[in-house]
């Protein structure tokens, strides 16, 4: 049984109490848990998949959206702390989720001396890069700009966007997530090298180029980079899902747990 607060925050479609490691997945802006939670069917039985569900969506539809990155980090940390202390864990985040996962990893390391065995980042800049810092200065996009962007990059089933209420909610959720992202301040000078785990970055070959080299300054572990065929949502292509989940399984199993 999940402790209180866990059912709300976490989706786990296959509970694996004997797993050696947990993979905590953080979805993209405007996204829910349905796609990444399904990875449990593709990963080895030694890994239990937990997907983070933020307020304002799915079963948390009636809750107010998170105010800022700190409140997201605090909720994830307080709900998951016992689980994270109990057995090894790895993080996977795509786009907005990549920044979320890094913010949580940073907090866990600073406050509790805990860190993931591996951090997997997808479709995002290194959080200490100029490109990531410039996100804070982007003016809030208009609803129609957000909708055009969502339609262009994919990731949301088009039939959902035909429904006016759903469309409005998807746009609002995306806007609120971007607002959270803009409250995330990470200045490299605060800590020498915050992490020691290995970091792997995945990206779609047709997506915009990301500033990734700066990840190397954030860990004393190894950093590696993979481009997979496709655009921003390359990870929803089945062949890429197979590659990602195999690669993630291998990295976790090689982490010497």
Automatic annotation (TrEMBL):
Record keyword ATP-binding present: no
Record GO terms (molecular function): fatty acyl-[ACP] hydrolase activity
Pfam families, A to Z: Thioesterase (PF00975)
Keyword Lipid metabolism annotated: yes
Assigned keywords, A-Z: Fatty acid biosynthesis, Fatty acid metabolism, Hydrolase, Lipid biosynthesis, Lipid metabolism
InterPro entries: AB_hydrolase_fold (IPR029058), TEII (IPR012223), Thioesterase (IPR001031)
Domain Thioesterase: 22-243
GO biological process, one term: medium-chain fatty acid biosynthetic process
Catalyses which reaction(s): (9Z)-octadecenoyl-[ACP] + H2O = (9Z)-octadecenoate + holo-[ACP] + H(+)
E.C. designation(s): 3.1.2.14
Enzyme class label: hydrolase
Family named by the database record: Belongs to the thioesterase family.
Protein name in the entry: S-acyl fatty acid synthase thioesterase, medium chain
Gene assigned in the entry: Sast
